[in-house]
């Protein structure tokens, strides 16, 4: 019965995309346990369906079959569904990080006594919680699987902390542990990793606390619109023409669209960037249509330089779509918006006013379509700003990887770059370019990277690579420990400032919908009607 319901929901055109997003994430959290993945996915989807049915019922109970309230209900369904899914992902991530922190403590304790990484991992697994037990088993299998690529786990790790731990385990298995200044490098790096995880947990919990209730503040004003209209008409029947006329209908659409945009901005400020990495199924299905694919390719070929720059920009943001997918996403969303806005504006009856009404209708449809086409690009600019905030955090991650590798025998610049490439997000393009051109450009490639990025911590890291050609890897990176301590402390202080700024922006824009509702649905109609009555009394 459960499997039948799951297949039905998964194959449904309205729920298929959401099921795939949740299922993909649950497969990372619960690796190797398909039954658990199906259970959690089905449970979340059913919750979302029930919430959406209640929302639609409430709105349509008041608005009946009015197309404008139907449009509003679909937008609310989208917002509540996205918020529910992201909240679940975030909760599971924090839960897994806490379990991982405890797991690292156990590994550290076991490794101190016998120095055997396999035994330490196996014993630590016995005391692990369920999610961590699955992750630990997968990690252990990857370490012991001699037939597969030794870096297999990196591609399926839940986050960068698990990747760092895997890198630690691989180096210990390959090269053995090293003792520097009477300290085990493995234990020292494990302590650094544990501190980083603790910082991440505190950061996410603080963000959750600072953003608490904002989704409700954004969405609830939409529910109030119809109630205000009913109350207003009961008190002043003459307001019927305003609320049920062109202005009232246009107000509903504008408020709904503004609410949707604000909601998406708040989601980007609150949740990690990797939550938005799932490709829409309809884009793939559209590109599978031969003539659509050919048209897109012809358009790209005619504007090659423009779309080459766009492709580089998308890669620099580690975006989920390539330039072809991004272009088709923009075009078809614009077409969809054009059709929807045309239907809504015809339903409003603006075109019936006369030539002026037709002109206004065409102008509104054109503006909305153009805005939709550029909306995705505007979201990319926000993503770019958020990635720049994470630059220092990524440098700390690079330093952690280098600290793991720099003391190991036979480690080369190429090996370090290979690992950095796997950990990179913000600097992924730069590290890939360095790795690809190092063979024929030599050390000059690091100078080029410094000019491209122009970010002091990254430049200092490149200087260390340049110096390693003359004095060796260990000596060139000898200051990295003190640098890392400085950047970690600096990043902790900046984290508080960044979170506070994000929360301040989110709180400010979250109150915009309620202000618009109060102003354009409650205040202006009454003032307008009051002025009309005063004018009629004056004429008498």
Describe this structure in words.
This protein has 540 residues and is mainly alpha-helical. It is built from 25 helices and two strands. The protein has helices at residues 2-11, 16-29, 34-63, 67-114, 117-126, 130-144, 152-156, 160-175, 185-210, 214-235, 240-243, 246-270, 281-287, 290-302, 304-316, 323-348, 355-389, 391-405, 413-423, 428-441, 444-453, 456-471, 473-476, 480-510, 512-539, and strands at residues 179-180, 183-184. A two-stranded antiparallel sheet has the order 1-2. Strand 1 (179-180) and strand 2 form a beta hairpin. The mean pLDDT is 84.
Task: Give the overall silhouette.
Answer: elongated
Oligomerization state: single chain
N- and C-termini, Cα separation: 74 Å
**Spans where pLDDT lies below 50 across 5 or more residues:** none
How much of the residues is beta strand, in percent?
under 5%
Bin the helical content. Answer: over 70%
- Give the spatial strand order of the biggest sheet: 1-2
Helix-strand category: mainly alpha
Average pLDDT confidence is: 84
Question: How many strands appear in the DSSP assignment?
Answer: 2
Order of helices and strands: HHHHHHHHEEHHHHHHHHHHHHHHHHH
Number of helices, counting only DSSP H or I runs of 4 residues or more: 25
Radius of gyration from the alpha-carbon trace, in angstroms: 28 Å
Largest sheet at a glance?
Answer: 2 strands, antiparallel
